[in-house]
Structures are given as structure tokens and as C-alpha cells.
Amino acid sequence: MNWRRTLQWLPASSFLLMFCFGVAVCGRCVAQERLSNGEMPPVLQGYITAVHLPDGFDMNDRHVVMSTRTGVGYIGDKVLQSDTPLRAELRPGAYVEVAGNYDAHTRTAKAVTVCIYNERTKTRTGNGLILRVVSAGPEPVYRADGYQIRINSSSSVSFHSGLKRLSDVGPDTMLRYKGKLGKDGILEATRAQFTRIAGKPEIVSPSQSSEAPNSAAHTNGGAMQGSAPNEDKLQMWHAIPPDQPLQQRVARIGLSLVPAYMSEKAGNNPSKISYRFYAVDDEKMRSGYSLIDKHIILIPKQAAERLQNDSQLAAVLAEGIAQKLQTQVITAGDVAESAAGVAAAGGMIFMTPFAIAGYATYLIPAMHKGEQVLETPIQDQRDRIALGLMADAGYDPHQAPEAWRLLAPVHPALDPQSLPYPLRSEYQLNVLITLYDPHTAPVATVPQ
């Protein structure tokens, strides 16, 4: 009896069962082969928020369990190794893709492979004001766009608006750059374009002051009185609490974050900017914000009360300055249209978590494609600049992710350590390990 006749006598249910079993076995073999080659779609992807090596790591409330057989490598590697020094790259802030089995009930993934994004393979491009000359000489390093950018002997450099050489370049110059991160966390520019920008004079009322406001003159029906000019009164309908220690602390920290070259300018300098910082009474806002076309940075006292130290308060105030610096670049007329549209549209510098998520999710697809375009959304750029302002002013930038973590929930948490990191904090963790905690990444050996 041939196989055709045999199938005629086999019950249909048994035949289907055997057929499905065979498909499952074959499928499992193929799946295991694809997993070992790093080709399976990830079950989890995102930023690491805590590590428990060698057992695994967390991605907020999702847990990844690793074994000695878990393959680890960079995204794009064809072969992943279980015994590799790249396991040391699994740190808070690293972007990873995890393949394996995921249990949605326990929010736990048993990792077969873990792929890490290699930050130094990405070509980064963008625009930014030079806020500080970190080091001068034949290969100068500038603080711009949240990076430290080095111009070396192989960089293609061009000068505009009267600039002729690197010795002419300083703060108030816009830098358009292209390059990759070095092992020390400094961006090595392959191309740099310098353009001097002309600032516009700021009309400052004699009653304006960068000092802490007088509480008796600032609380009247919720409108700002006294030191604020008339045009500010129309936009600032917030009661300013008569808490002089708080107002003085906010003003002190805020002014210390302003780039040094701005504070040192003469009062009649066309690009002189007088920043002012206030704590206001606003129960609905959990972060800070600034006013359209005004160099006034506000923070709700309710938000300030949640923060645990000066560095965390500096993180919130630095965001306001960072937005104003972005606006200054846009005003100069030499910035990508994608960034200009977003930053020019709104006066609120701190968006809702949903808005932040919308911008920040644009980051990872751009990484994977390797496109040489403006690097990140406007919110990510702002976070980078704010971290740079904090570091240059002597504050601990590692407190910034913690600040936004504390401000994320509607009500203060009884146990702050139980709070998940919002997306902006996860991005800041990535910036911190990339730019502020540089390390020599081992080169993965890929068998041919």
C-alpha cells in the first residue's frame, strides 16, 4: 500500500495533529536558528533603567532575565556571543533589543539574545549655538547643541559672516556640524560650518530685575505686579508665593545656569539677555515653563517642593534656558525647518508626557536607519542642552533623570524609588552614559 492509500485510512483528526506537530517542530528549529543569529524580532526594545548583572536588567517595570547562554552583541551583528565583554555595555541608558520569550503577566522576558545600539556608529548632524569654548588651540573643542564638539585637522571647515579662522570663533557663534562620537564622548566633527549671529537688543524696563521678587509687591489677585513690565502682566496670571527663601533659591540657581558669556556682556550689548526666574503657585503644572518672547523662567512651587536637591531644581530651570537658546538659533534663521516649526509654535517648554513621547519616539527609528539628518526631535535636543548647562554650572547632570521621575506622577509618590522613568528620563540616561560617562567599548568579533 502506497503512502496515498495510507493517508486515506488515517483519521483526519490524527493527521491534522501530526501535521501541526511537524510544523511546530520545524518552526522551532528555524526560530532557534534565527535567534542564535540575532534575526528574530525583539519582544522588548527600549532603554535599560537598572541592571542586576549577571542575572539580567530592568526596562522600568519590565524585567529581562539572562542566562550564561544569552547571546549579546551590537544591533546588526550577524552572530551574537554569550561570553563577550560587551555584557559590560548593559548599563542604565543603553538602548537594547531583546529577543526571546516574554510573559505579559509577569512582565518578564527570558532573553535568548540582547542586542545593544552602538552609539559610535551613528553619524550625528545638527545646529547649535556655541555656549562655551572648552579648549582652544589647533584642535579646539566647543560646547554646542548639548555636545562637546572637537574640530580636528581632518575636519572640513567653512566660515561665514566675517569669520575667517578658528581663532575668531567663540560664543554667540552658530555651529552646523556633522560627525561621530569618539571613545571619550566628544563628537569628532568631519564637517563644521561657523556663522556669527547678530543679537537683537532686549528692551528691559528699569523695574526689571534678576533678583528675587519682593513678595509684598507681587501678589495681587494672581497677577504679577511690581518688577514685571506691563507686557508681562498680560501673560502671567500666577500668584507668586511670598516665600523669600524659595524665590532667592530659584533665582540663585537659575542665574548660575546662564552661560557665563551671557552674564559677562555689557548692559548695552545688542545680544545681552536678562533672564529672570520665579517660583509661582500652580497646582496643575508639575514642571516649569517660560513665556513666549520673554526671558522669564517659571517653576511651580509645588514642583520645587517635590525635588530633593539643588541639582534637581537646576534640571528644571535649565530646560527653560535651553528652550530660549533654541529660539535664539531659530531667530538667527539657520536651523532645520523640522526643529523650527515645533520650537516656535509654543511657549510652554515642558510638554505633557504624551507630547514628549511623540517627539522622543522619533529618535530610535532614525538610529536604525543610519540616516544623516538632523539627529533628534526638538525635545531631545533640549534635554541635551539642559544637561550641558547643568554640567558647566557645576551641578550633577545625573540628577536630571531623577528630577523628571519625581515630577511625572500627578501626586507625589510615597516611595520615589518605585516610580518608573518617563521617556525623557530614559533618553537623558542614554546621554549621560554616552557623553558624560564615556567608556571604551570592546570591538565585537564577528566570525566570517
Describe it:
The protein has 13 helices and 15 strands. It is of the alpha+beta class. The chain folds into three domains: 44-117, Beta Barrel (OB fold (Dihydrolipoamide Acetyltransferase, E2P)), CATH 2.40.50; 121-196, OB fold (Dihydrolipoamide Acetyltransferase, E2P) (Beta Barrel); 215-436, no CATH class. Strands 1, 2, 3, 4, 5, 6 and 7 form a seven-stranded mixed sheet that branches. A five-stranded mixed β-barrel has the order 8-9-10-12-11. Helix 4 packs across helix 7 (310-332). The radius of gyration is 27 Å and the shape is flat.
Compose a concise summary of this entry.
This protein is α+β, with helices and mostly antiparallel strands and 448 residues long.
- Put simply, the count of helices is 13
Strand pairing plus helix content: what structural class?
alpha+beta
| Fraction of residues in helix | 25-40%
Give the biggest sheet. 7 strands, mixed
What series of H and E elements makes up the topology?
Answer: HHEEEEEEEEEEEEHHHEEEHHHHHHHH
How many DSSP E strands? 15
Structural domains: how many = 3
List the helices and strands and how they pair.
Elements: H1 3-9, H2 12-36, E1 44-47, E2 50-52, E3 56-59, E4 62-65, E5 71-74, E6 95-103, E7 108-116, E8 124-135, E9 141-144, E10 147-160, E11 173-181, E12 187-196, H3 230-233, H4 244-257, H5 260-263, E13 276-280, E14 289-290, E15 296-300, H6 301-306, H7 310-332, H8 337-345, H9 353-360, H10 363-369, H11 378-392, H12 399-407, H13 423-436
Parallel strand pairs: 4-7, 5-7, 10-12, 13-15
Antiparallel strand pairs: 1-6, 2-3, 3-4, 6-7, 8-9, 8-11, 9-10, 11-12, 14-15
Helix pairs in contact: 4-7, 7-8, 7-11, 7-12, 11-13, 12-13
